[in-house]
Amino acid sequence: MSGSSALAPWGVLGGLVAGWTANTTADGLYNGGLAGLLGGILTLAVVVGLGALNVVLSTGDVNAAGAIGAYVSVVVGLMIIPLFTVEGLIVGGIAPSLRELVP
Fold this sequence. Notes:
84% helix
């Protein structure tokens, strides 16, 4: 895996951490979804920023970097942010139950 798809486990990890601290399943869902959403937005900023920097340093063309950054931001925005949010919701909802099983 490479690119932004390699970051997919971060949505699960964020949901687990946020859900683990929740007292109820509803809190775990909310906290996990919010952690996944914020993680997806930060991933968007990092992936687009580093990609644009790579293009500028490789080609010296700022216009090409802007065009590629715009394309990547749409792709990441449509795929990664919802994926991280759903991962956070699922794991965040399960985490409070898992916490009860762990002594």
